[in-house]
Amino acid sequence: MVKIRLARYGRKKRPFYRIVVTDSRRRRDSGWIESIGYYNPLVEPKTVEIDMAKLNDWINKGAQMSERVAKLKKIYEERTANA
Q1: In angstroms, rounded to a whole number, what is the distance separating the alpha carbons of residues 41 and 8?
Q2: C-alpha–C-alpha distance, residues 41 and 60, integer Å
Q3: Per-residue model confidence as pLDDT tens for the chain (83 residues)
Q4: DSSP tag of 47
Q5: Nearest 5 degrees, angle CA 4-CA 82-CA 45?
Q6: Helices (H), the chain
Q7: How many other CB atoms sit within 10 Å of the CB of residue 20?
Q8: How far apart are CA 42 and CA 64, in angstroms?
Q9: Distance between CA atoms of 76 and 50, rounded to whole angstroms?
Q10: Taking the mean position of all CA atoms in its chain, how far away is CA 23?
Q11: CA pair distance 40, 6, nearest whole angstrom
């Protein structure tokens, strides 16, 4: 099964996440199929950037979003609608 989830990058206590498409059987940070965005929780306001065309394409192909990615997608849509 293909999942859309976060992969952690950055150093100790300084997290930075990529939103990636990967096989659900792989480890969190191991090889992924495609990177479709990022999330930086350390800046204010928290930065979320998602390539919506790629995200929707993968969802149409049957990929499942994790709960956290679904929340980040909602935040991103609200921010882009207000901008």
Answers
A1: 11
A2: 28
A3: 899 999 999 999 999 999 999 988 877 777 889 999 999 999 988 999 999 999 999 999 999 999 999 999 999 999 888 86
A4: E
A5: 65
A6: 52-60, 67-82
A7: 22
A8: 26
A9: 7
A10: 14
A11: 11
> Is residue 23 within 8 Å of residue 37, measured between CB atoms?
no
Distance CA 46, CA 6 (A): 15
Superfamily in which the 2-82 domain is placed by CATH: Ribosomal protein S16 (3.30.1320.10)
Q: Which long-range contacts (CB under 8 A, 24 or more apart) does 57-62 make?
A: 58/2, 58/4, 58/21, 58/34, 59/4, 61/2, 62/2
Domain ranges within the chain, ordered by starting residue? 2-82
Identity of the residue numbered 8: R
Tokens of 2: 């293909």
In DSSP notation, 19-34 reads EEEEETTS-TTS--SE
